[in-house]
Give the backbone structure.
Amino acid sequence: MERGNFGTKIGVILATAGSAVGLGNIWRFPYMTGQNGGAAFILIYILCVIMFGIPGMVSEFIVGRHGAANAARAYKIIGGHKAWALVGIVGAITSMIILGFYAVVAGWCMQYLFASIFGGINGDAAYVAEYFKTFSSDAIKPTLWGITFILLTHLVVQNGVRNGIEKVSNLLMPCLFILLIIIVIAACLQPGAEKGIEFLLKPDFSKLNRNIFLEALGQAFFSLSLGTACLCTYASYFSRQTNLMKSAAQIAGIDTIVAILAGLMIFPAAFSVGVNPDCGPSLIFITLPNVFQQAFGGVHIIGYIIAILFYALLVLAALTSTISMHEIGTAFFFEELSRKKKGIFSHMNVSRKGGAWIESIICIIICIFCSLSMGGVKNLTLFNMSILDFCDFFTAQILLPLGAFVTCILVGWYVPKKVIRDEFTNWGTIRSTLFDIYLFAVRFICPICIIAIELYQTGLLK
Ligand code: PHE
C-alpha cells in the first residue's frame, strides 16, 4: 500500500504549524492569560514550551518517522512490543474527544463570522451576552455548525496528505498570518491600548495561584498538539531529510508567536474600552464583539471589517488544526482495517475515504453531546461540568500530559539510544550538539516535572 508524504520542506512546517496554531492560540490562550493575570502566566507558559514542549515534540516526531505508519503501529514498531500500540490508540481516542468539542467552538466561530457579516451581533453589551447565551444553548443551530465543521475537515482529509492537507495548509497559513498582523496593528493603534500591552508583557507575580502550573502545562501541550499522537502521525509523512529538532523549534516558535500576537490583538482592544478580560471561555464571543464595536466604532466600517476578519481568522486556524486531529484516526482506521489478514477485521477492506468516514462519524457523535451540553439538553454534565468543559479539561490537563509522559519514558528509556541518535541526527548527516541535552530532558526533566505538576495540582504533593 502506497503511503502519502509531504512534498516540500515548507509543506512540512506549514502543515505541522497549521496543526499547532488554532483555537488553542486565539481562543484558549487569551482567555487563560486573562484569567491568570497576564504576563506571569505567559512566562510560565513559555518555560513549559521550552522545557517540555520541544523535547516532547521531537520524541513524537522520532516515533512517527521511525515507524512510518499510523500512531498505534508506529508506537508498536519503535517500542518493539504490541503493548506500546496502546499509547497510539489512546492518542487517537484523545484526538477524537478533542475534535468533538473543538468542532463545537469552531462552529460557534462560523456562526459569528456569518453574524458579523450580516450584522447579527451589533448591539450593546447586554445584547451581545444574550446573543451568545441564546445561540450556544440552542439545541439545533450550534450542533449543526459543529457537524458542518467536521464534514468540512473530512472533505480535506479524504483527499490525502499531499493533495488535501499540504495544499490547504500552504494556502491557509499565509492568509492567517496576514489577517493576524492586520488586526494586531489595528488593535495596538487604539487610544489606551498601552494598558493591554503592559498586561501582556509586565508580570504581576501576586496573581500566581496553585492552578497556574497545570493550566500552563496543559495549555502548552494543547497548543503544540502534543500528547495526542498527532505530531507522530504527521511525522510519519516526513522525509529522511527533515531535521526533527529544528522543525520542532520552528513550529514551537511560530505557535508561541501566534499566541502572543493573539493576545496583542485582544487585550489592547479590550483595555482601550475598559473591559477586563477575565471572563473565561466566552471572552472572544461575549467580550470581543463589543470591544470591536466600541474600539473601532468611530469609523463604523473598520469595526465591521475587523470583526469579520477576526472570525474568519478563527475559522481558518481551527480548520488547519481539525485536519490534523482527523488525520490521526483516518490513518489509523485506513491502515489497520485495510490490510488485516487475520482476526475479527479480516473481512474488511477499508479505503482512505472509508477510514475518514469512520473517524467523522465518531467525532460527530461526540460533537453532538458536547454541543447539547451547553444548554440544549438540561443536565448533560460530567463531574459538575458541561460535557464540553469536561472534555476540554480532561484532555488538556490529564490525557495530553499523560501521553507526553509515556512517550518520553518510551523514547528516553526503552528505545535503543542508537535508534534515537540516528533519527535525531538524520543518520549522522547533521550535527548533534543538542542531542545530549535532548536526551537528558526526555529522560529526567520532562517525566519528573510532568508528574510533579499533576500531583501538585491534585493536592497529593504539597
Ligand atoms: N494545537 C491545536 C490548537 O492550538 C489543537 C490541537 C490539539 C490540534 C491536539 C491537534 C491535536 O488549537
Remarks:
- Residues 19-20, 22-25, 95, 98, 222-223, 225, 228, 230, 321, 324-325 surround phenylalanine (CB under 6 Å).
- The longest strand covers residues 381-382.
- The mean pLDDT is 90.
- Strands lie at 381-382, 385-386.
